[in-house]
Amino acid sequence: MTSANDGTLSLQQFLPYRLSALANRISQSLAVKYSKQYGISVQEWRILAALGEETKLSAVGITNRIAMDKVAVSRAVKRLIEKDLIIKHLDDNDQRSHELSLSAQGVDIYQKLVPIALKHEQQVTANLTKKEKESLLKLLSKLDNAPL
């Protein structure tokens, strides 16, 4: 499936490449929709989304949750703090660690971005049937849980 008889690799048939390229295209096309209006980058949006879902997370928790490089998370967190969209406070259970949460302004931006993201998802999957969407999500979960 991914190689020709001569030992070369066909990127268009190579699953890791296809998934990465598709994810980048979808993320970038979504970013176009919210970055100009709200000044939020893809990395910042992912952090806002994680905190919108979980309420409180450490930087490590965010890194693990959104599968993003810890340096990129750290930089995006710093920008979000500077924009007053997230708050950094000591972890109640571990005084050596910090937790992050959305500020009131962060909650407001998050609530404005969610409908944009959901509409974008609908547009991306518009040519799939309901059954195909369900199958896609199941297949992605299987791939996500595969041993690497």
TrEMBL record:
UniProt xrefs under InterPro entries: HTH_MarR-typ (IPR000835), Metal_resp_HTH_trans_reg (IPR052067), Tscrpt_reg_MarR-type_CS (IPR023187), WH-like_DNA-bd_sf (IPR036388), WH_DNA-bd_sf (IPR036390)
SMART domains: HTH_MARR
One matching Pfam family: MarR_2
Family matches, as PROSITE patterns: HTH_MARR_1, HTH_MARR_2
Keyword DNA-binding assigned: yes
SUPFAM superfamilies: Winged helix' DNA-binding domain
Domain of life of the source: Bacteria
Key words, A-Z: DNA-binding, Transcription, Transcription regulation
Domain HTH marR-type: 12-145
Gene3D superfamilies in alphabetical order: Winged helix-like DNA-binding domain superfamily/Winged helix DNA-binding domain
Listed name of the protein: MarR family winged helix-turn-helix transcriptional regulator
Phylogenetic placement of the source organism: Bacteria, Pseudomonadati, Pseudomonadota, Gammaproteobacteria, Alteromonadales
